[in-house]
Amino acid sequence: MDNEKDRVKGSYARCLMKDNFFDYFYEIFMNADPYVKERFSKTDFEQQKKLIRHGVNLMIMYANEEFVAKVGLERLRKSHSINELNIHPKYYSYWKASLIQTVAEFDDEFDENLRNDWSQVLDVGIAFISSGYDAY
Ligand code: HEM
Fold first, then answer.
1. Are 39 and 85 in contact (CB under 8 A)?
2. What is the DSSP secondary structure assignment for residue 45, as one 8-state letter?
3. What tens digit of pLDDT does each residue of 31-45 get?
């Protein structure tokens, strides 16, 4: 495990061994801004937790140039764009900060290097998804 993508995969695997990872994430994310809370006011979280688990996996794979992930992220790029969920690009920084804060809490091996690794990996997928905001 010697590159940042492998370190992030390992970190994510450790996080997922604890089963309330995404409860914690949504708690932080929804309290980051009223806009976020409002968007999730009708969400079925049992379903959403399964979808986001896979979504984060796609983000890591995409940054790793596993291009099978590109199809899945393209779907998210479109679903989050202006004519569907209408998620303004500025909210991705809250998403990223909330996820990294959650990892910091759940991964026993978390340190500043891992923070950096996660940050770089997430930036790749976020650039792709948020650039689709008005592309459809
Ligand atoms: C790169 C970051 C993100 C990823 C990987 C991600 C992933 C996902 C996934 C996998 C779904 C379910 C599938 C779908 O409906 O397309 C979803 C739904 C959703 N996402 Fe995101 N998302 C991200 C950023 C955001 C941000 C910044 C917001 C801002 C509020 C947001 C709000 C939503 C909402 C409102 C839904 C629909 C929930 C429902 O069905 O009630 N997402 N997201």
1. yes
2. H
3. 999 999 999 999 999
For residue 75, the ligand 1 atom closest to its alpha carbon is 16
Ligand 1: residues with CB < 6 A are 36, 39-40, 42-43, 48, 51-52, 55, 59, 76, 79-80, 85, 87, 91-92, 95, 125-126, 129
Task: Give the number of residues written for the chain.
Answer: 136
Counting ligand 1 atoms within 8 A of each CB, the residue from 80, 86, 98, 130 with the most, and so the one to mutate, is: 80
Please report the domains of the chain, with CATH numbers, ordered by start residue.
Answer: 4-130 (1.10.490.10)
DSSP 8-state assignment for residue 91: G
Give the residue from 126, 86, 117, 89 showing the smallest Cα distance to 11: 117
The tokens describing 7, both together, are 């370190």
Give the tens place of pLDDT for each residue, 45-66: 999 999 999 999 999 999 999 9
Give the pTM: 0.97
Closest CA to 99 of 32, 19, 43: 32
